[in-house]
């Protein structure tokens, strides 16, 4: 298992790679569907002082709320995997999601991918 400790945060490169691969498949895949236009809580619109673990927890919670509401087997399987990996990185399961701001699943996943790629870059340096 490849792990590093960067800036006080444990890096699990295998988990990060798996998350990024899933996000790439969802956002760049040939099978993009109307699912990408589903509306999800914009957990990234929170305060600037939100911790990384809080971001991962709220993102996982928002994804879980979305895939439990929609019966799309492909998207459900991918989102469940993201939820599981994000929860593992958050190390907590008790977080609330502010539903006041919304975004499309496409935008949400794109922002999540950027965050994960930045974290992966920091872990590798």
UniProtKB/TrEMBL annotation:
SMART domains in the cross-refs: IL4_13
Subcellular location(s) per record: Secreted
Alphabetized SUPFAM superfamilies for the sequence: 4-helical cytokines
Gene Ontology molecular function, alphabetical: cytokine activity; growth factor activity; interleukin-4 receptor binding
GO cellular component, one term: extracellular space
GO BP, sorted A to Z: B cell activation; immune response; interleukin-4-mediated signaling pathway; negative regulation of inflammatory response; positive regulation of DNA-templated transcription; positive regulation of gene expression; regulation of immune response; regulation of multicellular organismal process
Alphabetized Pfam families for the sequence: IL4
Entry keywords, A to Z: B-cell activation, Cytokine, Disulfide bond, Glycoprotein, Growth factor, Secreted, Signal
InterPro entries given in the database record: 4_helix_cytokine-like_core (IPR009079), IL-4 (IPR002354), IL-4/IL-13 (IPR001325)
Function: Participates in at least several B-cell activation processes as well as of other cell types. It is a costimulator of DNA-synthesis. It induces the expression of class II MHC molecules on resting B-cells. It enhances both secretion and cell surface expression of IgE and IgG1. It also regulates the expression of the low affinity Fc receptor for IgE (CD23) on both lymphocytes and monocytes. Positively regulates IL31RA expression in macrophages. Stimulates autophagy in dendritic cells by interfering with mTORC1 signaling and through the induction of RUFY4.
Family the entry assigns: Belongs to the IL-4/IL-13 family.
Name of this protein: Interleukin-4
Species assigned in the record: Diceros bicornis minor
Lineage: Eukaryota, Metazoa, Chordata, Craniata, Vertebrata
């Amino acid at each position: 298992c490849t792990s590093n400790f960067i800036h006080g945060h444990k890096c699990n490169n295998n988990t990060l790679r798996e998350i990024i691969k899933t996000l790439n498949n969802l956002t760049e895949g040939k099978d993009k569907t109307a699912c990408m236009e589903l509306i999800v809580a914009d957990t990234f619109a929170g305060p600037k002082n939100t911790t990384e673990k809080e971001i991962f927890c709220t993102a996982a919670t928002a994804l879980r709320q979305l895939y439990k509401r929609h019966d799309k087997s492909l998207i459900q399987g991918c989102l469940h995997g993201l939820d599981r990996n994000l929860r593992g990185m958050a190390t907590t399961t008790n977080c609330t999601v502010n539903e006041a701001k919304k975004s499309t699943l496409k935008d949400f996943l794109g922002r999540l991918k950027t965050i994960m790629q930045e974290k992966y870059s920091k872990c590798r340096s």
